[in-house]
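Lab notebook: predicted structure, single chain.

Context: the supervisor wants predicted structures on file for every construct in the current expression panel, including those that have not yet been purified. This is the next one on the list. No modifications to the sequence; it matches the entry in the shared construct table.
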Amino acid sequence: MILYPAMDLMGGRVVRLAQGRFDDSTAYPAEPAEALAAFAEAGAEWAHVVDLDGARAGEPRQHELIASLASAPLKLQVAGGFRTRDHIARMFDAGVARVVIGSLTVKQPELVSAFLAEFGGRITLSLDVRVIDGVPEVATSGWTEDSGRSLWDVAALYPEVRHLLLTDIGRDGMLAGPNFDLLEEAGRLLPHLAIQASGGVSSLDDLRRLHTAGAIVGKALWEGRIGLREALHACA
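Prediction complete. Output recorded below exactly as produced.
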C-alpha cells in the first residue's frame, strides 16, 4: 500500500481543516518545500498536496506555488481548483506525477472523460461522500453541496479510470479511524480501481487494517500521533 503524506495549503501556509470547514483550521510552522523534503528523507515516495484556496474558489489560487514544489525529491499528487486542460497540463509540465479532479467528476463528466482520454492514469478522481442511511452520497464544491448521486453511480460513469481517492467526510480531520466498512465495500464493488483511503487515519493499527492501494494521512502525522517512518513501515 502506498502511503501519501498529505499537505494542505492555504495562503501558502500548511494547514489542516476539521471536516473540510475553512473556519476550523490549524496552521503548522513548516515551510511547504521543507515539509516535502522531510517526507522524502523519511522514505516517502509520494506526497498529496492540496490547494485549499483553489478548492474553495473553484479556480487556481496556489498553482504557482505547487508547480514550484514539483522539483521535490518525491512524486506529487496534487489537488484543488483544477478545472481546465491547461490547468492540468501546466502541472504535468512542471513535473507533477498526478492531478486530482474532484467536483468536476459529478458536474462535468464529459470534460472529465476527455481528461482521462488524454492523460490516462495520471488523473486521480476524488469522490467525497457522506454516508446517509447506508448509502455513500457524493458531495461537491468543498463539501458544501450534495450531488444527489451515490458513489456507485458516479464511479460507473468512468469505466476507464484507474485511481480513485475516496473520502468519508465525517471522518476527515477527526482522527476517528477510517470508515473500514465503506472501504471494504468499495474494494468489493469497484475491484478495477486503485483506491486511496482518505479520512480518519489516526494510528499505525488503522494503516495495518487497510487493504486499499493507498492511504492519505495528514493530521495524524502533523499532530505527531504517528511518525512517518513508522507509518511507511506499517504500509510496506
